[in-house]
Amino acid sequence: MAFDPFQLHVPHASLDVIVTAAKHEDGPKVIRALNDPRVHLNLDQPPFPYTEADWESWFKHVKDINDRTREEWQAMATSDEKRDVETSRSTRWIGSKGWGSMIRVRVARSDASVLGNNSDSTEVMIGTIDVRRSGFPGVVDRQEQAAAVAFNNSLPLGDPRIVWEVGYYLISEYHGRGIMPATLQTLRSKVMVPLMNVHILTGYYFEGNDASRRVFEKCRFEALGMVPDAVLLPDSKARASGNSIGVGIMRWTRAEDSQDEMDASQST
Question: Which InterPro entries does this chain map to (predicted)?
Fold first, then answer.
């Protein structure tokens, strides 16, 4: 079967995990997850409470990313270097708008389980994972942060100097089952490295979120330190200590990690 980055199988000891594009019917699951304090208190971006209108806005955004990525993936299959030079357009890489995807598990339908036939299964959305050019949330000085973002965004697609940032969450019922490290490592080795030419990947976690820190550590990220009071939270997500929270910075560098190079060579 030909490799398909939009049906990405994630190796896992006990679950059938896949990474796919977003679907509109994912809405109720996402809304429930992002109103769960075990999820939303570890995220700064999604608003709380998270409403159907919020979902519709986000789905439009991620569908735009998915549609563009599909176009770029198809263009790679018919890439012509001479044509690219003539049109000043590269079809060598995907990710001009980043990468957005849903994490799912395939589970047997109840009637199929009764019959002992697990081939009749359905996909259940359990989380999201996305990759984008970094917004450098660990840089407290806003002018310095804006300059870093502007330079990073000015780099052409495929430039190894681009600093990418990964974000993710799982619905709480699937926490602590080793899903996220497996998903992140698979997406990095099968998509980010060979298709996006990612060389620098960063991740951030809120102070006290040890579970997220361990995900990065299992994926061979290096800890760069904790920045106190780096993020100002809205009142709806404020802690007892106030609205500011520290951010831990994690960084993976391709030049220092040969494993993903080896995995990427086997991705197509």
Answer: Acyl_CoA_acyltransferase, GNAT_dom
Amino acid identity at 87: T
* Ranges of H-type helices in the chain: 27-33, 37-40, 52-77, 81-87, 110-114, 142-154, 179-187, 193-196, 210-218, 259-264
Residue 234 lies inside a defined structural domain of this protein: yes
**What is the sign, positive or negative, of the torsion defined by CA atoms of 124, 175, 258, 206?**
positive
pLDDT, one tens digit per residue, over 170-224 is 999 999 999 999 999 999 999 999 999 999 999 999 999 999 999 999 999 999 9
What tokens appear for 22 in the block? 């977003």
Name residues whose C-beta falls within 8 Å of residue 29's C-beta, 6 or more positions apart in sequence: 124, 125, 126, 171
Domain containing 176 equals: 7-264
Counted domains in the chain: 1
- Dihedral of alpha carbons 116, 122, 126, 128, sign: positive
pLDDT digits (tens, 9 = 90+) for 36-66: 999 999 998 899 999 999 999 999 999 999 9
Which residues, other chains included, contact 245 with Cβ-Cβ below 8 Å and sequence gap of 6+?
206, 207, 229, 230, 231, 233, 239
Say whether 85 sits in a helix, a strand or coil: helix
- Tokens at 133, concatenated: 């050019």
Q: Is residue 2 part of a domain?
A: no
255 Ramachandran zone, left/alpha/beta (phi>0; psi -120 to 50)? alpha
Residue type at position 217: E
Q: Would you say 48 and 38 are in contact if contact means Cβ atoms under 8 Å apart?
A: no
184 within a domain of the structure (yes/no) = yes
- pTM strictly above 0.85: yes
Q: What is the CATH number of the domain that holds 31?
A: 3.40.630.30
Determine, yes or no, domain membership for 244: yes
